[in-house]
Amino acid sequence: MDKIPFVDGTKTQEAYVTINEQNYQVTPAVWTGTTPVSALNLNNMQNNIEEAIGILEESINSTGLIEGRLPTLNNVELNTLEAFNGFRYIVGCTVNGETITNGYFLQLIYTETTYRIQIHITAASGKIRYRIMNAGTWEDFVSIGKQITVGQEEPTNEFIGDKRVYVKRLDIGNLPNATSKNVNHGLSNVQIERLEGVATNNGLQALPLPFASEREASSSIRLQSWSSYITVYTGTDRSEFTGVVDIYYTKN
Question: CB-based contacts of 204: which residues, under 8 Å, 6+ apart?
Fold first, then answer.
């Protein structure tokens, strides 16, 4: 920062007014205040600005950002994380007591105790997730892009009205031989929105589920959801196929 040194001027003549070619001395206005515009105060203001810039640079240096490194958060519960805006690298951190994968982390705060957003990027895979604190309550982490694990509930980026859509993948095993098969889904108090799946035959064939045959109705495969299970119907022997079904639902 280049500072300009201010120096008070020296009075060389009293103030006057000229009337009919005659000069009359006048009494200057009188001012009061706690911070007059003076060379001393202007110089002090510059010094304060320079000091503030130095503190900011020192703070940035302490995080390692100038050196190209992120500061690290170790073994911290993210639900009760201190209030800060910025990037960190997290190691051994938890959400609701469960350890999450090490990676890059960004927190942005609008108000400290009511509105925040956290973004987590897994170091190894680059998987991106985010979650929002709304009115003081943290929502679940949501993956950007489709992330499905067999048997686990996963929030999606899809909404129906103001309700978030969740997905759960079921391993339905081998398809039935010209009959039906029930598979428990383990869900309750939900509204199932749709069923999607795929059945494969040792990698030789892949059929979407449900499957509608254009040539023979008996070759079709039907899916139906119930309160506690889904049913797979086949009109022919499909037992050489194994499948998975994704259940998309909202919570009541």
Answer: none
**Measuring CA to CA, how many Å separate 83 from each of 40, 112, 243?**
38, 6, 46
Per domain, the residue ranges of the chain are: 1-10+35-67, 72-145, 159-251
Distance between CA atoms of residues 12 and 31, nearest Å: 20
* Predicted pLDDT of residue 1: 63
- Closest among 138, 199, 144, 196 to 168, alpha carbons compared: 196
State which H helix or E strand residue 190 sits in: strand 190-200
Q: What is the tens place of the pLDDT at every residue in 56-74?
A: 655 555 444 545 678 889 9
pTM: 0.58
Q: For residue 231, what are the β-bridge partners? A: 182, 224
